[in-house]
Amino acid sequence: MDKIAVDFTGVRVTALVELYLRWLDSKEQHPILGDTRADEAVQRLDFDFSQLKPMNIGRFAVGVRSRIMDEWAARYLADNPDALVLDLGCGFDSRVFRVEPSAGHHWYDVDFPDVIEIANQLYPERAEHSTIGASVVDPDWLMQIPGDKPVVVVADGLFGFLTEDEVRRVFKQIVDHFPTGEFLFNTYPTKTKKQLEKRPGPIFGKFGVSINWALDDERAVEKFDDRLHFVDEWSQLDRSLLTNAPLYYRALCAMIRAVPAWRQGTGVLRYRF
């Protein structure tokens, strides 16, 4: 099949980075996530993924947090037979195929129009699966989705690239639109944001990517809206999910777990409304 041309800069590059890291994970003897569709997607794209090698260590964190969100989303759907899914800033993720929701659960992938256009060429059509090409901060895209059912919202790697005002707006729009639901998302701590501002690194610096919103207190999101309630946090340093990771990475995670200030902001968060 013909290669699909990709010429991204800015935050859109993170769709390629995350796909690349899921692909690396899939090549491990004992993958954390095991995204079986990542290899075909990487092969289809006309992009030099070798330039992303400085990000290689990120495959463990991405594998862990994506697996956590997959499991939480699947659990929510099992408990709510009529619920739907919003995968915000989905990029080139094949999450809908990993979770495999049963009939009655409509799944919506949302990302920039040019990202969605390419994603639609990477993966086959699936019943009760729709893609929406729009910025998640656009006030109109949500009107395409019925608001009379419970919803589970996945934002894997998204919110840190929005401003705090934009994050607040996304939460409010969704909470206003649906009767009840959950948000599953990760964030970045202030220390990481400041480090990247000083030294963006070879990938973020080259493509112009920046962290715009940081979160140090997981309960701070409750202040966005009285209807939001913190439910759970699952660490990306979880020992049980890193059993087969290389020794050097497990040792690094052990060091981070041992220092509260370093451990801050390493969790995947779950909120309910």
TrEMBL record:
<dbReference type="InterPro" id="IPR007213">
    <property type="entry name" value="Ppm1/Ppm2/Tcmp"/>
</dbReference>
<dbReference type="Pfam" id="PF04072">
    <property type="entry name" value="LCM"/>
</dbReference>
<dbReference type="GO" id="GO:0008168">
    <property type="term" value="F:methyltransferase activity"/>
</dbReference>
<keyword id="KW-0808">Transferase</keyword>
<dbReference type="InterPro" id="IPR016874">
    <property type="entry name" value="TcmP-like"/>
</dbReference>
<protein>
    <submittedName>
        <fullName>Class I SAM-dependent methyltransferase</fullName>
    </submittedName>
</protein>
<keyword id="KW-0489">Methyltransferase</keyword>
<dbReference type="GO" id="GO:0032259">
    <property type="term" value="P:methylation"/>
</dbReference>
<dbReference type="InterPro" id="IPR029063">
    <property type="entry name" value="SAM-dependent_MTases_sf"/>
</dbReference>
